[in-house]
Amino acid sequence: MANANGFSLHAGVATEGHQRTKLERLCRYISRPAVSVERLSLTSQGNIRYALKTPYRDGTTHVVFEPLDFMARLAALIPNPQVNLTRYHGVFAPNHRLRSAIVPGREVPGPSREGQGGQIPRHAALGWAKRLKRVFGIEVERCDRCGGSVKIIAAIEDPEVIGEILDHLGLGPKASAHALARGPPGSAAEPFD
Question: For residue 31, what are the domain limits?
């Protein structure tokens, strides 16, 4: 166990690639939530009771919080934005010379380094369109009708602008209220309100 500058590293346990049960246990440990939902319950007064996994030294088995206090404690567990929670070392470290051999990505020209002559390729992160395809199977760079390639010229992210465009096209929430099921003209069917 090593401690330095507020970081701690415990390297006393190792898992080989072929040890599937150990790897599964490690993955379950890493992906576990901060709070166990199975141990949460409501009291008759509306407070939140959390059953402890192991009793405290004084014998306490449950902790009771008022709802707002519980929410404040949960919010304290949320990390600040733009903070890296995972630190990589070895070949996974950001500047390791062998990282490009094991991390997927496209090669882009990088800055030339003295003594090595020429440009050294570096890996760039995948764009949002490639990530959509890779993670969700959504292909935004191919036309649904003809199968041809589509060039993305802009990505609109402002909710107000998106709403205006959808309203103009008749696809926004205002348009959907008017596009409810109706009967043919002259029939008794009226739109729902």
Answer: 22-80
